[in-house]
Amino acid sequence: MRQSLWLTGGSAAVLYLASFVIRREFSLSFSFGGFLLGLLLFAVGYAVLIVLHEACHLLGFRIFGGVPFRKMAYGVNLEMGIAYATTEIPLRNRPMRRALLLPLWLTGVLPGIIGIWLDSQLLILLSAFLIGGAAGDLEMNRQLKKLPDNWLIRDDPEKPKLYAYNPKGKAATQEDGTDSEN
Ligand SMILES: [Zn+2]
Question: Which of 8, 21, 53, 63 is positioned for an S-S bond with 107, CB 3.0–4.6 A?
């Protein structure tokens, strides 16, 4: 959780700085009506991007792992307050890591680049929050990086957790995401 906050704040700082360097100006206006509308747009945009974040995991399982869509599950766990995307079929380490990080690029970094391009504070802020939301994915990627590329990674159907095992041996190890987000 703390890692996620740091990542959100850090990305916001980097994106605003990049925007300033590129545009050589910094415009901020404030009105109460505008603030409320902004808040509403942020909430809607955040919800949409969270759904897209999970959809990108599925896309990653499909593109990088060749998993058929019918072997995947997608939904919301209200008890844990998270959206999730999962695959029944284990992926090899490398494709799994790509599928883990795809949402970071497409729903985190990309909106930030578009936000700088369009000079949209809303998109820049959303980008920072989505990058922060990928902290759990980044942490899992970091842990999987230590394992050989040919190991198989199985996704836990319920928890934001991955199990790694050597396809030739019996030894299994377990990788935990530090964030509740999957
Ligand atoms: Zn994710």
Answer: 53
Q: Which amino acid is at 65?
A: G
* Of the candidate ranges 47-51, 73-77, 111-115, 149-153, the one whose mean pLDDT is the lowest: 73-77
Distance between Cα 83 and ligand 1 center (Å): 9
Ligand 1 centroid to Cα of residue 38, in Å, is 25
Distance 66 CA to ligand 1 centre (A): 18
**Dihedral sign computed on CA atoms, order 115, 106, 97, 164:** positive
What letter does residue 105 receive in the DSSP assignment? I
Minimum mean pLDDT range among 90-94, 115-119, 122-126, 177-181: 177-181
Distance from residue 40's CA to the centre of ligand 1 (Å): 24
